[in-house]
Write a structure and sequence with these properties.
This protein is α+β, with helices and mostly antiparallel strands. The protein has 41 helices and 28 strands.
């Protein structure tokens, strides 16, 4: 339409020559209105000359958008242009006319409606059009708002259209016509009342009040603005004052560098201050230079100032010296402090702590504490200078004597005169006494026995040389400086003498006593005595000491998986004490003594040694007693470390205890009876093990009487980590009687027994170990550890054959378990069971969850590796079940199920990394990595492994979680877990606990598992059956009943009757007519139960607890 109008206008203009020679466009500096007016003037000039204008086309939306339309129209009318002015149709008008034309045609209207219906169905199918019940609450609110606005606009349009289409009413000519049209008489119309006086008065009052409120609001607004201005003024005033105060404080606290920065920051404005500061600097430098040249004391003062802290801090010392042109000739060169490596410190410490270099004190009070670290004092066996020479010979580390002395541990020192040595070696002391004597006489250069031996042998590491069998050095002697061989010297010697003693009854006995006597002889005989003692007696003794210690150290560091090192020794007997004693008991011989057999053992898998102490009232220290002490330890090693097959024994060498023929025989028989092979048994120089036990004598000072081994253990067992066990005197006697016959016939004696330092198994015995399930699964675990991928692990588990395990009920007293007191404090009070459960101790080395399974299956925690292998196999082969959310949720058996339980389990895993988005693939990766990780022994397990353990032992498991930490975690982990296949519905209980004591309730996390067991298994007897409900065995059929009477062997039971013929049906009733009463033997009581409960919906039928009934049927093999 617009194009047609434009074409008509252009043709008209060309026809009559109305276009000017130049184009009427925009001219710079003129407004759009002025340019339009100029065009209109041109048109009017045409009209004045007799021309005509048929149409005027104006585009109000383009060039003339700034011209007032009314002004333009009025101007056109003033020139006589009165034709109708119209605008081009808008798009809305065009669409309106199109719809009108379409709707007038019935066929097109029908086609349009059909298309709209199909379009509506299509939109409804894809979800863009929804019914009200399909919409969300937010969508429904939005739609209702749209409907409300649409309806409001529709009513408004309808009202406007009605007003437009309704013509104005014509004036009334007479009253009759008015009556006819209005239906109301004229008189009545004139008397229509207007607004009332009260209405008018109320309107005026409201108007006045509104005006008053407006005025008051304006006044308050002005006051508020004034208050805000005043507050802002005071705020700025306060800020300026603070800035002034801060400026003053900053000037006081400013550093030289901050003053310099502030000076340069305002250098352009404070040019005079900068210049003055620099002038002051140069004047001060020149004045100091002149003072240094003229006055030497002033130079020292200036140099002292230049050594100040600020000069060193800002690194201006060298610059100041160059500016003042003064040198510090007396400045000392500081040596850089060399850092001593940790390896060297450890090497020196280990060297000083060696038994050949220092000895431990025997007094319990000889301790030293530094930085709250308490150590037992050790005394040096030689001077520091000699030990330094020895250290340099053994090690290639570059170290000076001062550093060596500095690195000496604080608890190792030289002994004083008062600190007597009471456990010295007779061989070493006799040679040392004569060497000291000759050193004082200046006959030998040194009294160091090792140096003297070194002078007389080819090599101290050669056995033949040290044993005197070397032909080259056999006749070597110590270098002597002798002026007169006949001069006499005196020295002391320890000797054993026989004396006769007469007792009160007149009997005489010959006793052996050790005394220290002085001997005098010429220098020639004294040197001969020295050579006699030095070679080969002392040299052999010294070589044995070094060789034994070296072998002991090497053996301890190179133990294999199947070897165990045991170090034992008798400590001095403990003298029993009482808190209060009478005089005759204190000074007499009435107080008993207790034997202490101490030691430790270590295997390759152990991180630290396992110390033990056997305590007994028996004072026998013979070989039979030794093995009575050792049997509990050997059994413990067999249970805890089943891989151990070979034993290494170390002890000291008294001929009355360890180094004698009876012990040799027992050593060759006792270990093999327990399934071990003896590799080596040797003597050791290490003594005084177990003296730390005597530190617990403080218990006596608190009122305790320690007179027996049992009292001794109870007084100190809570304050030590060392295993304490009692060996009763009957056990010692039984050991003697058991081996008495064989020992009496074993009378062979070897004259070289006192010279023995080691015995060894001559022929390697073949150990016939039972191929138990444990050994099979231990080797399976080792095979699983060699798998390189999860797929390889699955294949290995699929090919392996393992036996089915069955979990059983265990009891604390029956199975010899100890209650875990730390876990008992964490035990929750909401455990759903009528049993009395206690947490018991299991190993806390990472194998705690498999150890719990071992307790339920085998009755102890020694088979953790076997349970671990079963768990890994279960998790590997049934991966899809343990990653199935539905399976995990159904296993809970509770209504408050966690919808994201799989993600929660993944987050509880040690393989989860915080921040990782948990998808199905990432959860599967975490699951596989966790299984690959738990293949290693002593690795911690979690909730997935508890699920697998339930299926392994074929019993439900209740995972008990304490009321600690995050309650959501407890909600996920405190559940009953059902196995895939089960032997019984009666659950077993495992509790999450922790060995840490530094956590509060809010941030508590577990790191340990313990089983929950009942204290004792109730055995029916006269004390616990009377007036109780029981299940009795009547002709191999179980019946519940009530015990009315008991005697020593039988119980009188009123039995219930069975409602169903099927024995497995748990439905019973009490007979009303004839009661079933009978006497039953105690052996026929199957269980003591709680009162049977009524079945829901029945008034006379009862049932026994389903778990107890299932257990009773399994006991009768139904």
């Amino acid at each position: 339409m617009e194009k047609l109008i434009r074409k008509r206008i252009v043709d008209h203009m060309n026809k009559y020559g109305l276009f000017s020679d130049r184009q009427f466009g925009f001219i710079g500096g003129r407004s759009t209105g002025l340019q339009l007016l100029k065009v209109l003037d041109h048109w009017t000039e045409i009209l004045d000359n007799g021309g005509s204008i048929d149409a005027i086309y104006t585009d109000f939306m383009k060039a003339f958008d700034k011209v007032p339309h009314k002004r333009l129209i009025n101007m056109l009318k003033s020139y006589g242009i009165s034709n109708q002015t119209f605008m081009v149709l808008s798009q809305a008008e065009k669409q309106r006319r199109y719809r009108l034309k379409r709707d007038t045609d019935p066929s097109r209207r029908e086609q349009y409606l059909r298309n709209e219906r199909e379009r509506y169905k299509m939109l409804k199918g894809v979800g863009k059009k929804k019914n009200r019940d399909e919409m969300t609450k937010r969508e429904l609110r939005s739609k209702r708002k749209y409907w409300k606005n649409y309806k409001r606009d529709l009513r408004k349009r309808q009202t406007n259209m009605k007003n437009i289409l309704t013509p104005p009413g014509s004036p009334h000519t007479n009253d009759e016509q008015a009556v006819q049209e209005e239906g109301v008489p004229v008189a009545l119309q004139e008397n229509v009342p207007g607004p009332s006086r009260q209405n008018i008065a109320s309107k005026r009052k409201r108007k006045r009040e509104k005006a008053k409120v407006y005025r008051k609001n304006k006044l308050l607004i002005r006051k508020l603005e004034e208050s805000n201005r005043r507050v802002q003024m005071y705020r700025m005033r306060l800020k300026r004052e603070k800035n002034k105060m801060n400026l003053i404080e900053n000037k006081k606290l400013e550093t030289p560098r901050s003053r310099t920065k502030r000076l340069f920051k305002h250098a352009s404005r404070n040019f005079k201050s900068v210049r003055k500061t620099l002038d002051f600097h140069h004047v001060l430098i020149n004045e100091m230079q002149n003072s240094c040249e003229k006055n030497r004391s002033m130079k020292k003062s200036i140099l002292e100032i230049l050594r100040g802290k600020l000069f060193r801090k800002y690194k201006l010392t060298k610059f100041a010296h160059s500016q003042i042109q003064v040198t510090n000739q007396s400045k000392r060169k500081r040596k850089s402090k060399q850092t001593i490596s940790a390896n060297l410190r450890g090497t020196v410490k280990a060297f000083f702590e060696r038994d050949d270099n220092s000895r431990i004190t025997t007094d319990k009070k000889k301790t030293k504490t530094v930085n709250k670290i308490k150590k037992q004092i050790r005394f040096l066996n030689d001077t520091l200078s000699n030990l330094f020479v020895k250290f340099k010979a053994e090690n290639n580390d570059k170290i000076g004597f001062i550093t060596f002395w500095t690195l000496k541990p604080y608890w190792i020192r030289k002994a004083t005169e008062k600190e007597r040595e009471t456990c010295l070696c007779k061989c070493c002391e006799n040679v040392g006494l004569i060497a000291d004597c000759l050193k004082k006489a200046k006959i030998v250069e040194t009294a160091n026995l090792e140096s003297l031996v070194k002078e007389t042998v080819c090599s101290m590491d050669n056995l033949d040389c040290m044993y005197g069998n070397c032909l080259d050095c056999k006749q070597s002697t110590v270098k002597l400086t002798v002026e007169d061989k006949n001069d006499e010297v005196t020295w002391s010697q320890w000797q054993t003498k026989k004396i006769k003693k007469t007792f009160k009854g007149g009997d005489e006995k010959e006793l052996s006593v050790t005394v220290k006597e002085k001997e005098s002889a010429s220098i020639e005989k004294a040197t001969e005595k020295l050579h006699e003692l030095l070679r080969p007696s002392y040299s052999r003794h010294l070589f044995n000491i070094k060789n034994q210690y070296k072998h002991y150290k090497t053996l301890k560091e190179t133990l294999s998986q199947t070897e165990c090192l045991i170090h034992v020794d008798f400590s001095e007997n403990y003298s029993c004490k009482m808190s209060k004693e009478i005089q005759s008991m204190h000074f007499g011989a009435s107080l008993p003594q207790i034997s202490l057999h101490t030691g430790y053992y270590v295997t390759k898998d152990m991180d630290t040694i396992r110390s033990f102490c056997g305590v007994s009232d028996s004072l026998r220290h013979d070989p039979q007693s030794i093995w009575a002490y050792m049997l509990p330890i050997l059994n413990e090693i067999k249970d805890l470390y089943p891989f151990v097959e070979y034993l290494h024994f170390y002890s000291d060498g008294p001929t009355s205890q360890y180094r004698q023929k009876i012990n040799f025989y027992l050593l060759s028989t006792m270990p093999f009876e327990l399934g071990f092979s003896l590799v080596l048994a040797g003597t050791s120089t290490k003594q005084d093990m177990g003296r730390e036990y005597q530190e617990y004598q403080m218990a006596v000072s608190f009122g305790a009487d320690i007179l027996t081994a049992d009292a001794f253990i109870k007084s100190i067992e809570t304050g030590t980590k060392i295993k304490l066990y009692e060996v009763k005197e009957p056990d010692v006697l039984e050991s003697r009687q058991k081996n008495s016959y064989t020992i009496e016939n074993y009378s062979r004696y070897d004259e070289n027994t006192p010279n023995l330092h080691r015995i060894r198994e001559k022929a390697k015995r073949k150990m016939e170990k039972d191929k138990t399930c444990q050994n099979k699964n231990s080797s399976l675990l080792q095979t699983l550890q060699q798998c390189g991928s999860f797929e390889h692990l699955q294949i290995t588990c699929l090919e392996s054959i393992t036996e089915t395990l069955h979990g059983k009920d265990r009891f604390i007293e029956k199975d010899n378990f100890a209650i875990d007191n730390r876990s008992m404090k964490l035990f929750p009070d909401d455990v759903c069971t009528d049993k009395t459960l206690f947490p018991v101790q299991v190993r806390a080395d990472g194998n705690c969850l498999p150890a719990c399974g071992s307790v339920f299956v085998f009755g102890n925690d020694s088979y953790a590796d076997e349970i671990r292998a079963h768990i890994i196999k279960e998790l590997s082969l049934n991966k899809k079940f343990y990653l199935d959310k539905n399976y995990l949720s159904n296993a809970f058996g509770t209504d408050d199920q966690n919808k994201n339980i799989l993600k929660s389990f993944a987050m509880y895993s040690d393989e989860y990394t915080h921040g990782v988005v948990l998808t199905e693939r990432s959860i599967e990766d975490i699951y596989e990595r966790e299984i690959m990780q738990i293949r290693n022994s002593k690795t911690y397990m979690g909730i997935w492994q508890i699920f697998a353990l339930a299926s392994v032992i074929r019993r439900p498991i209740v995972s008990v979680y304490p009321k600690k930490g995050n309650p959501n975690v407890r909600k996920d982990l405190y559940r009953r877990i059902e196995p895939m296949e089960k032997d019984s519905d009666k659950p077993l209980y495992i509790m999450w606990t922790s060995t840490r004591l530094d956590m509060n309730n809010n941030y508590w996390v577990p790191n340990h598992f313990v089983p929950l067991l009942e204290p004792v298994e109730i055995i029916p007897d006269a004390n616990n059956c009377l007036h109780k409900y029981v299940i009795v065995d009547y002709e191999s059929t179980p019946y519940p009943g009530y015990v009315e009477d008991v005697d020593s062997s039988d119980v009188y039971v009123v039995c219930m009757q069975r409602l169903e013929r099927d024995i497995k049906k748990n439905v019973f009733y009490w007979p009303k007519a004839v009661k079933d009463k009978c006497w039953y033997n105690y052996s026929r009581i199957l269980a003591i139960i709680s009162k049977p409960k009524k079945i829901k919906g029945s008034s006379s039928n009862y049932e026994v607890d389903p778990e107890i009934w299932t257990k009773t049927l399994s006991r009768l093999q139904y």
